[in-house]
Design a protein that fits this description.
Order of helices and strands: HEHHEEEEHHEHHEEHHEEEE
CATH topology: Thiol Ester Dehydrase, Chain A
Helix content: 10-25%
Low-confidence stretches: none
CATH architecture: Roll
Strand order of the largest sheet: 1-3-4-5-2-9-12-11-10-6
CATH superfamily: Hotdog Thioesterase
Distance between the termini: 40 Å
Structural class: alpha+beta
Strand content: 25-35%
Number of strands: 12
Shape: globular
Number of helices: 9
């Protein structure tokens, strides 16, 4: 706090720069454990349902207690990405103060289901810090953070590699890479197609009908889902479902510790806001070089997981999910998420398939390439599919 007792928080976002000293300080954390955020940790029927609502997932396996009783799990299980509510993969407050961060990739391997009554804890570790060139801002820094999520018995639920790109705000704004991008105006037939896809999604969930490994062919397409047009309600629902939020004293205390991560909204009386408010406020998004309000990286990754779990059925296991955000998904954009089977194989007696995934916007642009590995039930009795899919050792290609 300043000498007058006021918080040292400005109306304008800090214009931090990538200096040799700041870069060295960030690299000094490589290998170190980082303190995680403290958000939603306890799983309950209500929290699992609210999270499913927040990502638009209609699968009854994750939200209908009576339905889930008659599955092989014998009860409700969480959406695979629910552990992320405690800490979004890659997200942190570490290093490069005043240099804006955008989540750009998540690569997660899943080991165990989470059920009502479970509690999530996390271990964060810095893996690397690399300087790169970017068309968006010129100079940028990529930070690599590994997050290991465990339950109350110290059993690993999932392990995620999160990538965060740090861009100088002034450089991003002045380069204006997205300056000419306008909110899409949908023709009636375009909007009708999206509405049909969304309204019929529930009827296309595989559910209790097993999808056997032998019945899947390489090149086969998975069912495509639509998410959009993106609205403020969508981004707010994800924040609510993730247990995010702090107000008044709780917010001010955190802002006092990290003043360069917060601003006073000069258009609204000077109220305190986090510098990630561009996800919900168009004018601030433009100040960091984005054409408008945009989605969250883990939000989009959850949509990819939903596309896979809808298709694979209740008896399968999502083993791995990778998603990269190569373009912004802004207010009014729609993401069509699909994929095709790229490989079938058996490893450690488990019947596996790899799926090459794609997120494409309404302009036909590839915004989000992705990848998934699924463990399917097999007609071969020599294979196995345990409730917890931790038995197979995947050969994971690196994310660069």
């Amino acid at each position: 706090m300043g000498r007058t007792g006021e918080l040292d928080i400005t109306e304008e976002a800090a214009e931090g720069t990538i200096t040799p000293e700041a870069l060295a300080a960030a690299r000094a954390l490589i290998g170190r454990k980082l303190r995680p955020e403290q958000y939603l940790r306890d799983a309950s029927v209500d929290s699992l349902t609210i999270f499913a609502n927040g990502i638009g997932d209609l699968n009854p396996l994750f939200r209908d207690v009576e339905y889930a009783r008659f599955t092989r799990f014998g009860g409700l299980i969480a959406h695979p990405c629910f552990p992320w509510t405690h800490h979004w993969p890659g997200r942190s407050y570490w290093g490069l103060a005043g240099v804006h961060g955008f989540g750009v990739a998540i690569d997660c391997e899943f080991y165990r289901n989470l059920r009502p009554g479970d509690r999530t804890s996390i271990w964060n570790r810095v893996l690397d810090v690399r300087e790169k060139e970017s068309r968006f801002s010129g100079r940028m820094v990529m930070q690599y953070l590994e997050s290991t999520y465990v339950n109350q018995r110290d059993e690993v639920l999932c392990r995620a590699l999160g990538l965060t790109a740090r861009h100088e705000r002034r450089a991003s704004r002045e380069r204006g890479k997205y300056r000419e991008v306008k909110t899409h105006v949908y023709a009636p037939e375009e909007r009708a197609r999206i509405d049909r896809m969304v309204m019929t999604e529930g009827s296309r969930i595989r559910g209790g009908e097993p999808r056997y490994w032998e019945e899947v062919e390489v090149g086969e397409a998975i069912d495509e889902i639509a998410r959009g047009p993106l609205s403020l309600s969508d981004t707010m629902a994800f924040v609510i479902g993730s247990g995010r939020g702090a107000a008044h004293g709780a917010l001010l205390r955190h802002a006092a510790k990290h003043p360069r991560h917060y601003i006073r909204n000069k258009r609204a009386g000077g109220g305190i806001e986090y510098t990630g408010i561009g996800h919900h406020r168009e004018d601030f998004a433009k100040e960091v070089g984005v054409p408008g309000m945009y989605d969250y990286l883990p939000q989009r990754a959850c949509w990819f997981a939903t596309a896979v779990t809808n298709w694979m059925g209740d008896d399968a296991v999502l083993k791995r999910l990778r998603m990269e955000a190569r373009m912004f998904n802004c207010q009014g954009d729609t993401t069509f998420i699909g994929g095709k089977v790229a490989r079938k194989y058996v490893k450690d007696r488990c019947a596996l398939i790899d799926i090459e995934m794609r997120g494409v916007n309404q302009r036909g642009e590839l915004t989000s390439p992705g990848f998934a590995t699924v463990m399917l039930p097999s007609l071969d009795t020599a294979t196995r599919i345990p409730l917890d899919g931790a038995v197979v050792d995947l050969e994971l290609p690196a994310v660069r």
